Amino acid sequence: MTGRVVVAVEQLRRQVPGGIGRYARGLLDGLSGLGGPEVELIASRHLGTAADPLSAWGFPVRASVLPAPFLTAAWDLGLAPVRGARLVHSVSLAAPPVRRRRARGGPPLVVTVHDLAWRAHPDATTRRGRRWHEAALRRALERADAFVVPSNPVADALVGAGADPARVRAIPHGVDHLHEPDAAAAASLLRRLGVVDGYLLTVATLEPRKNLSRLVAAFARARPSLDGPWPLVVVGPRGWGEAGVGDTGGVVAAGAVDEGVLAALYRGARAFAYVPLVEGFGLPALEAMACGVPVVASVTVPSAALQPGATAGAAALPGALQPGAPAGAAALRVDPTTVEDIAAALVRASCDDRLRSSLVAQGRALVAPLTWRASAAAHLAWWGTLS
Which of 198, 307, 312, 352 could be joined to 374 by an S-S link, Cβ 3.0–4.6 Å? Predict the structure, then answer.
């Protein structure tokens, strides 16, 4: 396709960009390495005197005069539409309006929908968050010409919400974004935390839908059966609500860490656990696989059920995910609502050497083709069908 593509990356202005921010950065990484259409970024006003961090990719940045909360509110009201674009892609439901100009030759709008978690588990989302997401989804269904989702389960949920199946494309994320491990900094952090002889690891924003309370309870149950006095290290920024970590024996909260430290923590873990109640994709599970760590993942994590060899253009997901580790599985999958299932899986992934070797091998095979360049190429192909 030819012409300028405007990518709305307002999520990267957030104090905690989270998983959507990781997707936005990965997509821009992939686009910067491809010979595609001219790309321009749009976001709210950059605050501060330093160079705008959005300029790191080398794309022109169209920064609004409005600060973040006001620009999002304007978009919600149908104000501040994007002009002078061949196509507009928003990395989240915080999407600029273009639909009213469509009849006059305006650009098509593509919106990435990462999950519909607020519908599946309303109690795991704030009331304000539920209201905004529901209204934003309604606007997207009215305004957008097409959607990108990270997995088939999200595609099914979006179609159930009213989207035309022909307008929805599942494109998995890449997993080649991890930095070189900063082993020295990670070792220093672990010493400060009192971790001296191996550990289990989880990585998540500390908020209710990540199901950390059940993971912590499962760890407490599993700990006497582990082969060593390994703690559970919890990495991630605080989100909202009661995270469920608390002051529990053997559970160590490390907070947010930079990507070099994170890569080193993955590589040093005995096992990795990620058991959210609902998940659109589940990138941390793939990051752990890329680092050669046995993974315990909830059946709600689509990325843990991808088949080795899946391409970025088609998420090869089975229709029904059952707990357990079938032959060739890349993760030991569990029911996230059952503490006993999670506990048993933690013991097996940490102590059963034959299973551990199988999980590591299958995990590496799964993530091998999942690059951000391939993901970006699949986005370009989808955009090309809309021009």
Answer: 312
Chain CA centroid to CA 18, Å = 7
Grouped pLDDT means (10 residues each) for the chain, 387 residues: 85 90 96 89 90 94 93 94 93 87 72 94 85 96 96 96 97 94 97 94 89 95 95 86 66 93 97 94 96 96 75 44 57 96 97 96 95 96 90
CATH topology of domain 183-367: Rossmann fold (3.40.50)
Q: Which long-range contacts (CB under 8 A, 24 or more apart) does 46-54 make?
A: 46/13, 53/12, 54/9, 54/12
Q: What is the pTM of this model?
A: 0.90
CATH number, domain 4-174+372-384, options 3.40.50.2000, 2.40.30.10, 3.30.590.10, 3.40.50.12640? 3.40.50.2000
So where are the chain's domains? Answer: 4-174+372-384, 183-367
